[in-house]
Design goal:
Layout: H1 2-17, H2 21-44
């Protein structure tokens, strides 16, 4: 569960530095999904 909390900011920070638009969007989606997964995991626990 804590993995999502670590992964989300890393993806979002990486997407800030990436210039390629497709990759940036993919990383932002991954970061957002990590936050959502953490939220659901913490609710279920």
């Amino acid at each position: 569960m804590i993995v999502y909390l670590i992964a989300a900011p890393m993806f979002l920070i990486a997407s800030y530095f990436i210039k390629d638009q497709r990759t940036k969007t993919a990383f932002m989606i991954l970061g957002g999904m990590s936050l959502v997964m953490y939220f659901f995991a913490s609710c279920a626990a």
